Amino acid sequence: MRKTFAVGAAVAALTLGTHALRAEDFRVELTAPGAKEAPYEGRVLLVLAADDKSEPRFQVDASHDAAQVFGIEVEGFRNGQAKVIGKDVLGYPGRSLSDVPAGTYTVQAVLHKYDTFKLGNGKVVKLPAARGAGQNWRKEPGNIISKPMKVNFDPKRPGEIKIALTEVIGPVEEPKDTEFVRHFKFKSERLSKFWGRDVYMRGHVLVPKDFDKHPEAKYPLAIFHGHFPEDFGGFRTTPPDANIKCEPNKRFINETCYARTEQQEAYDFYQKWVSPDFPRMLIVEIDHSNPYYDDSYAVNSANIGPYGDAITYDFIPALEKKFRGLGQGWARFLYGGSTGGWEALAAQVFYPDEYNGAFAACPDPIDFRQTMVTDIYKDKNAYFWTGPFGKVAKPGKRDYLGHLSHTIEDENRLELVLGDKTRSGGQWDVWEAVYSPMGEDGYPKRIWNKATGEIDSSVAAYWRDNYDMRHILERDWQKLAPKLQGKIHIYVGDMDNFYLNNAVYLMEDFLKKAQPAYGGEILYGDRDEHCWNGDKTQPNSVGRLRYNWMYVPKILKRIEAAAPKGADLTSWRYK
Fold first, then answer.
1. Count of domains in the chain?
2. Of 448, 466, 484, which closes a domain?
3. What are the strands, taking DSSP E only, across 464-551?
4. Coil, strand or helix: which one is 424?
5. Among residues 218, 212, 210, 223, which one has the least CA distance to residue 326?
């Protein structure tokens, strides 16, 4: 839960001059009453929404009907200074204020604040610190927002409109322990050294039935990788709310009340969790949000830090010690979807002895020859296919019928509006932050020119050698095969919204012919979208809610096959 409160110390004004206006006459002013007020650094975002169905900041995305947003960087933004948002300031969906038609809009401004980080390698960078909302600039505590207001915008009519940044988004309340969900906060020395300040990770741990009544029991551990979790999700000890508000679901048109479906699945999972025959185990969701994104991708990175080592060698052993995990690789498992699917597979590949199986659903690109639809090694441009007489835009998102909602250029332009130097907190920027080498300025090297899409082949080669899962497996298969046999399982819909099935096809091409055989499975869902995870008995809308129990039978088989002689296979099987 978050609270907002009046700041009283920072005011931004969107001012239209008193003369006949042109688009370039927009300006944002910051006034900070009080001579001792420190200057602000960060990104000022101006959002114009065509309706007031929600606050304008929550209507910003890459879709065709999204709110209009403009962004400018501010450093040392002091009392009385003005920043012009004119026709040369990049926007999305319209590229310029000149593209905004006359009309009535709901307008809101946001100051997304940056901190200064003195990195362990001596570089100094300015980034939005992770403050509890998973790097979501719309919700991040400490950001300053204005109250939404109606604006009649007409560039031909004189007038003045001021938008005051008066509300500070308050701190996030810490989740509280319950009978089944416990919380674990861990300071990472590796990450603190990298970032030059204390860095913590958090675990939201689902403990088994009668956990406190069986101090002698030790448990297998499942790591549910994915985006930033506010708490452990998909678990509910009570039936669905009788008076739940039902709204149409844009994505799952077969669902008439998806909120009820989610609650019912969460309650059904609870009933399975406490049933006599369900294996007693631990499941953890990890908050490893950082200055670039809502999670770290669970690998070591030149820009984000040694999260792979920190999670695998430090965080997980400490968590197992606290919650009585078995603490052995044969008793640890990984699963997740989308970002979490990539993380599950990558952690298994990079730490093959530390985990006993990865169930990767709809993973982010696992072969960069199909980074969605771009071959970053052969293509010259990430945004367009170019022929002798013209160019065609590359698609960014589709539905199960193949209808497109936006292009790759659209997504990248929106990110550039939200933050330069890989600071948008968006999907393409996080891939760049994780996979790229660090530049001389301390920020990630661009994989391509963010404005034009022109690919840097030297950065692409670095991506390949360090993070292209198919390339790494093929390159190192003779060494990895004995450690990974039976551990790789990949699931994806053949109409994944983000074309993630393309890279899975290429991975399958290698794994099918790999010797020794990989011993896992790859499955495709017919006309299933993002994020299909292998359940052919249910629609994708339901299957995606069953990660925490659908792989259990396969996990038990892996334990039986891999547990060493004398391993504890009984203390955690109580009724």
1. 3
2. 466
3. 488-493, 521-525
4. coil
5. 218
Contacts of 440 (CB under 8 A, 6+ apart): none
Residue 87 has pLDDT above 80, yes or no: no
The CA distance from 504 to 94, in Å, is 35
Instruction: Give pLDDT, residue 525.
Output: 95
Q: Provide the greatest CA pair distance for the chain.
A: 85
Number of neighbours of residue 379 by Cβ within 10 angstroms: 20
Is 174 within a domain?
A: no
- 544 in a structural domain: yes
Give the domain-ending residue among 169, 203, 238.
169
Q: How far apart are CA 25 and CA 14, in angstroms?
A: 10
Residues linked to residue 30 through DSSP beta bridges, in sequence order:
12, 81
116-119: long-range contacts (C-beta < 8 A, 24 or more apart)? Answer: 116/41, 117/195, 117/196, 117/197, 117/291, 118/196, 119/194, 119/195, 119/196, 119/442
For the four alpha carbons of 36, 37, 42 and 46, in that order, the dihedral sign comes to negative
Residues 123 and 16 in one domain: yes
Q: Where would I find the beta strands (DSSP E) of 154-242?
A: 165-169, 181-187, 200-206, 221-225
* Structure tokens belonging to residue 488: 């790789």
Interior CA angle at 36 toward 33 and 38, to 5°? 90
What token pair was written down for 243? Answer: 């008076």
Q: What is the DSSP letter of 381?
A: B
CA 419 to chain centre: 16
State pLDDT tens for residues 470-504.
999 999 999 999 999 999 999 999 999 999 999 99
**Start-to-end Cα distance in the chain:** 36
List beta partners, residue 493.
525
CA distance 149 to 56: 10
pTM of full prediction above 0.85: yes
pLDDT of 506 above 60: yes
Say if 175 falls within a structural domain: no
> How many contiguous H segments (helices) and E segments (strands) does the chain have?
14, 27
What residue type is assigned to position 185 of the chain? K
Q: Indicate the average pLDDT of the chain.
A: 91
d(CA 89, CA 98): 10
The alpha carbon of residue 159 and the mean position of all alpha carbons in its chain are separated, in whole angstroms, by: 41
Same domain as 402, residue 356: no
What confidence tens digit (pLDDT) does each residue in 320-351 have?
A: 999 999 999 999 999 999 999 999 999 999 99
Residue 74 φ then ψ, to 5°? -130, 135
Task: Name the residue range of residue 409's domain.
Answer: 370-466
**The token pair that represents 18 in the structure block:** 């008193």
Burial class (CB in 10 A: 0-12, 13-18, 19+), 40: buried
